[in-house]
Amino acid sequence: MAHEVDALEHERESWKPSSGLAVVVSDPVRNPELPPHRERMTDKDPAAMTRAVRTIYTLFYLSVAGSIWAIAAYMLFPIESGQIVDIRANNLFIGLGIALALLAIGIAAIHWSKAVMPDKEHVEDRHATRGRDETRAAAIEVFEVANEESGFGRRTMVRNSLIAALVASVAPAVVLFRGLAPFSTPTNPIAGDPVALLSHTMWEPGMRLAHDPTGEPIRAADVTIGSAVHVIPQPLAGLSHEDGYLEEKAKAIVLLMRLQPEDLIEPADRADWSYDGIVAYSKVCTHVGCPVALYEQLTHHLLCPCHQSQFDVTDQAKVIFGPAARPLPQLPITVDADGYLVARSDFTEPVGPSFWERH
C-alpha cells in the first residue's frame, strides 16, 4: 500500500509544470469517417427515377424549342425594318428564346446530376501517378464506369435530347451573324457593301455643325480654347428613327475641339480644313468603331475608352498609342456669313473600323 502511495505521489510531482502552466493531455483526434449514406427517392422508387429521367429530357427538348423560337423571332420581327416596335420585339423575343434554351440546359444538367447519377461517396487513397500500362488501363476503366454510372451511354433519351439541345443552342448565334451587314437590294445596291456605306455620310458642303442631340447650330465664337463639343449635322436632329436617325448618326458623329492655331500641324493640302484653331474629327474609332469621346485638354489627346487607342489632335489625329490602324478622319470645316460653323464637304475617306477597307 505504501508503495502505491509513493508511486502516485511521484506521478503527481512529475506533472507539475515548471512555468506554472497547466498541461492538458488528450487523445489524438479521431477520423469522424463519412456520414451514413442517405438514399434518395430515385434510388428507392423506380417510378421516381422514371419521372426524373422524363423531366430531364423534357427540359432538353424545351431548350431546343427555345433555340428554334429565337431563330423564328429573328425572322418574324426583322430589325432591318427600322420600326422601333420591331427593334424592341426583336431584342425581347430573341433574348427570351436564348435565355430559355440555356436555362433549360442548365436546370436539366443539375437535375440529372442530383437525381439520376449515383451519389455514393467514395474514398480513394492517394498514390504516385505513373504512365504504366496498368495506369492507362485503369483510366480507361474509370471512364467506362463513369459512363455506366451516369447513364450517358445507356439512357438514350437523355443523351440524345442533351445533344440536340446543345446543337440547337448554337443555331441562334449563327443566325444572328446575318444581321452584321444587310444584303444588297435592287433599291439599295450598296446595302451589303460596308466600304460603300461608310464612305459617305450625311455631311454636305455648307451644312451647319450642331450640338448633339439638340440640333442647335454652333457659332465659331462660342467654342472656347480647350473645349470639346459633340456634334451632329443640323438636319439630323429633325430625322425620326423610322427615317434612319440612328444609322446616319452612327456615321456622321463628330468631336469638335479648339486649340491655339499655332499648335496645329497641318499639311498644305489641309490648311483650310480648320478654322482659327477649331478642328473636327470623326468620333468613330478606326479600330472597331467605339465612340472616341475622352479629350485630354493639356496633352490634346483623344482617347478611345474601349481599347485605349490614343490620337493626337494637334497632328491630324494620328495614332500615338493602341490598336487603331489609322488616324481619325477629319471633317473639313469653315464658317458661313452668320459666323456659324459649316462643313466644307463630307469626309474624304471612310469612317469607322479600318478592317472594312481590307480585301
Please write out the topology:
Layout: H1 2-14, H2 41-44, H3 46-76, H4 84-116, H5 133-150, H6 156-176, H7 194-199, E1 209-211, E2 228-233, H8 245-252, E3 254-258, E4 278-282, E5 294-296, E6 301-303, E7 310-312, E8 318-321, E9 333-335, E10 341-343
Antiparallel strand pairs: 1-2, 2-3, 3-4, 5-6, 6-7, 7-8, 9-10
Helix pairs in contact: 3-4, 3-6, 4-6
Q: How many strands appear in the DSSP assignment? A: 10
Largest sheet: 4 strands, antiparallel
Instruction: Tell me the strand percentage band.
Output: 5-15%
Give the mean pLDDT.
Answer: 84
Provide the number of structural domains: 2
| Tertiary shape | elongated
Helices and strands: which structural class? alpha+beta
CATH architectural designation of the largest domain: 3-layer Sandwich
Q: Note poorly predicted spans.
A: none
Helix content: 25-40%
Report the top-level CATH class of the largest domain.
Mainly Beta
What is the overall number of helices?
Answer: 8
Write a structural description.
The protein is α+β, with helices and mostly antiparallel strands and 359 residues long. It folds into two domains: 41-119 and 142-180; 194-357, 3-layer Sandwich (Rieske Iron-sulfur Protein). 37% of the residues lie in helices and 11% in strands. It is built from eight helices and ten strands. The chain has helices spanning 2-14, 41-44, 46-76, 84-116, 133-150, 156-176, 194-199, 245-252; strands spanning 209-211, 228-233, 254-258, 278-282, 294-296, 301-303, 310-312, 318-321, 333-335, 341-343. It has a four-stranded antiparallel β-sheet. Strands 5-6-7-8 form a four-stranded antiparallel β-sheet, with no helix packed on it. Strand 9 (333-335) and strand 10 (341-343) form a beta hairpin. Helix 4 runs antiparallel to helix 6 (156-176). The longest helix has 33 residues, at 84-116. The protein is elongated. It holds the Pfam family QcrA_N. One of its GO terms (cellular component) is plasma membrane.
